[in-house]
Design goal:
The complex is a heterodimer of chains A (about 130) and B (about 180). With about 130 residues, chain A is an all-alpha fold. Chain A contains six helices and no strands. Chain B has two domains: about 80 residues, no CATH class; about 70 residues. In chain B, helix 9 runs antiparallel to helix 10. The chains are: A mainly alpha (about 130), B mainly alpha (about 180).
């Protein structure tokens, strides 16, 4: 029962990203070529409604605190790591959520990408202490 | 029914994605998809090699359930809630991709030129998927988040590190789409 709500949230997330075409490789390409407003509209309205939601729920909802954990301060890791992720995002046309969603839509070769993404995460874990953060 | 079956406009989709974040926060969790990759490494035994993967993965199993749901949602969304319409891309985008050698542009969610098994089993095709996946997995962990963690959750909560990360996402994405993709295809 505890897990059921997370399953339902996941199903909802998957449906929304398919129906919004945010899982479309072409939409990501179009975004990075500045040829369409579609993806900017999605991300923009998500952030605006997100800001509103977090401001309005500052005092909590039904006694539950609504808090986004603070990211550690820094610059190097965010700009370098972000750029590396961006290169992969535009090549594969999918960020981590869509990797799984696309697998569900029937793009089974996405399993290769997911395995490679696990390998990338694994290599980061090994090199972590040697990288500038 | 058409309103469901047709692609959803951006002004509907964006707030719905925020709903996912809001629900997860309400249940005391966070919206972050890339951390599942770390959890899966830990389950696969990566803790034996690096301290980074030594944590109690069961505390993060809720997020793997979200992933399972997302896979099911992808299936439902594409098989039962879609009318297989071609993505309404900018004609300029279509022309460009045609010039790069792509066909049936926007007919499916992903190009056959990258994801068809025939392509995947070629050296170049396999390298594209492996390098792309590697960059996503390595970069998101290095940056401590992806689109959900930084662009949606981080920017919604007005965090500077997330702004830097999202600027990084775009530097990388712009370099790939504008300079590297034309060299690959």
């Amino acid at each position: 029962m505890n897990y059921l709500k997370f399953l339902i949230i996941g199903v909802f997330f998957g449906i929304v990203l398919v129906k919004s075409e945010a899982v479309s490789w072409y939409r990501i390409y179009e975004m990075f070529r500045f040829q369409s407003f579609h993806m900017y509209g999605i991300i923009g309205t998500a952030i605006i409604t997100g800001i509103l939601f977090l401001q309005l729920s500052k005092k909590g909802i039904k006694g539950k605190n609504i808090l986004v954990p603070k990211k550690e301060n820094g610059f190097t890791r965010y700009i370098i790591g972000g750029t590396i992720f961006g290169l992969g995002w535009a090549l594969i046309g999918a960020c981590p959520g869509p990797l799984y969603i696309l697998l569900g839509t029937g793009v089974l070769s996405m399993a290769v990408v997911i395995a490679a993404a696990m390998l990338g995460t694994f290599v980061y874990g090994i090199l972590k202490n040697k990288l500038p953060h | 029914m058409d309103i469901i079956l047709n692609p959803w406009p951006w002004y509907v989709s964006g707030p719905l994605i925020t709903t996912v974040m809001a629900l997860l926060l309400y249940f005391g969790k966070t919206f972050g998809m890339s951390s599942n990759l770390k959890t899966m490494c830990t389950i696969a035994g990566a803790g034996k090699v690096s301290e980074f993967f030594k944590f109690n993965w069961k505390e993060h199993s809720w997020n793997l359930v979200v992933v399972a749901g997302a896979i099911i949602g992808g299936y439902i969304g594409s098989h039962y809630l879609s009318n297989q319409s071609t993505t309404n891309l900018n004609p300029e985008t279509v022309k460009e991709l045609k010039n790069l050698g792509f066909d049936n542009i926007g007919a499916h969610l992903v190009p056959a030129e990258i994801f068809d098994w025939e392509v995947v089993f070629s050296v170049k095709g396999l390298l594209i998927l492996i390098i792309g996946g590697f960059l996503v997995g390595f970069g998101t962990r290095y940056a401590d988040g992806c689109t959900s963690g930084h662009a949606i959750s981080g920017l919604s909560s007005l965090q500077k590190p997330s702004l830097v990360a999202v600027i990084g996402f775009f530097i990388g994405g712009l370099i790939m789409a504008n300079f590297i993709l034309p060299l690959i295809f």
